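I have been asked to look over a protein record a colleague put together. This is what I was given:
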Amino acid sequence: MFNIIIPTHNRPALLARTLQSLATQTWQDFHVIIVDDVAPSAPPLEALAALQGRYTYVTRSSKPGPAESRNAGLALADQPWLMFLDDDDTMEPGHLAALAARVQAAPAEILFHDFKVQNEDRTVMPPRLLEAATPLSIDGVSALDTWVLNRIPNSCLLYRRDLIADIRYDASLIIYEDWDYLLACLQRGQLSYVPGINSVVIHKSAAGASENMRRGNSRDDLILPTMLHLYKKFPCPTHEARLARQALLARAGVNLPLEHF
C-alpha cells in the first residue's frame, strides 16, 4: 500500500533508528526505498535485516543532496501511496495503520497530519533524549496558507502516487525544495488534514550543531530570493493569497507591489 522514501547522507546510526521504527509498525503493507548519496556507503545491516523483503537500498554517486535522492526514490515507487521520511525521524508503531484506515475509509489525494518534536543530544550515540516529545498541531493549516509559507513537515504528508507520479524535486534549490515539491503537487490534488494522527516524531539536535550547518541550513541569505522565485513559479490561485504573500514580506521589511505575487 505504501512506499516510504528515505534519503540518507552519512548517518548510519540515525538511519538504523528510523528503520527500526518501521520494522515495529503494526501495519506491514509497505516497501521502503532508501537512497544513500555516499558511495561507498555503510548500510545499517542489522536494521535492514528486520525489514527483509520490504526494502530497496540504492547507493548513488552523483550530486549529493536529498532532492536528487528523493527523485531516485520516486522513480522506483510502485505502491498506491507514497510518503517521505528523513533519515533521523521515526514513526510510532501505529502510524501506518492509522493512515491505512484513513485512506480506506474515504477518498483522498494529498493528506497531512500533526507530529511530535523530540529534542536530543547527538554528541553521543545513540542520541540522548533531552525531554519528552512535544506534540504539535498543524490542523489550522490550509492549502491557501501553503501558497504563502510552508508549515507542513515533509514527513507529515501522504501522496496518492498516480496523481503526482511524474512530479520531481528541483535539485537546483539549496533550500525550500520540499515546499517547491508540495506546491507542484497542489496543482494536481486537494490537500486534506487528518485529525487524530501525530505519530511521526521529528528529531532535532541543537541548532548550532555541525550537522545542522550542511546544505542551506545556515544560508539565511537565500530565504528571500528563493521565496520570490517560488512565488513567481507558482502564481497564487486567489487574490487573498497574493495579499497574504505581500503582507508576509512586509512584516519582514520587504515591501513589494502586488504584481510580484
